[in-house]
Amino acid sequence: MVQHVHDRAVASGAAEVIVATDDAEVAERCRGFGATVAMTGRHHRSGTDRIAEVVEARGMAGRRVVVNVQSDEPLLPPTLIRQVAEDLARHGQADIATLAAPVATAAELFDPNVVKLVRDRDGFALYFSRAPIPWHREGFRTSPGTLPSNTVYWRHIGLYAYRVESLRRLASELADPLELAESLEQLRALGCGMRIHVAEALEPAGVGVDTPEDLERVRALLRTETPG
User: Fold this and answer.
1) Quick one: average pLDDT of 109-121?
2) Of 33, 98, 172, 196, which sits 20 to 30 A from 163 (CA to CA)?
3) pLDDT: is 43 or 199 the higher one?
């Protein structure tokens, strides 16, 4: 799965692709398919903290844009990796950029493995949650289990672009109570006043792997992509 993610990151046109891990076996396997690997400590609370260690060790410049592509997204289109980096570059007032897509079904809206978000009129995130947000009081009261027709719900795509200086600041902050409650690292950024710009993804993000069922779906899809 990591190799699929790595290859898609390379295809995005990134200047450099690094696999950050604290596991020696993962590192060995990644070097086996030609990846550049950065070994990190085991103490990190999130992928954001792990990447912060890597950029610090490499002395990256403060305004450089770094994209965090999570290893459980083997079908992520390279287009979206480029999109999130370019979106951050265009929004100088943003500390972080990420992507979202409209929620398609009520089942998706009420699934805690699907992270929802609300944003302001300029596209900046107001909140992320595993719960359905916003809560449509009248719609859910009269038609429980259906999507209200007059409200657009957004599903977060777990892809982040950071400026290195923002990444350093975020890693220095204590875990936010909301981050711990929801198990969502982006809430630490909102909690300390950082701004996250959220653009609509230019194409479907593909299937992420959050459950054993997701893994089987991804395996089936990858088999259809591979000739023979």
Assistant:
1) 95
2) 33
3) 199
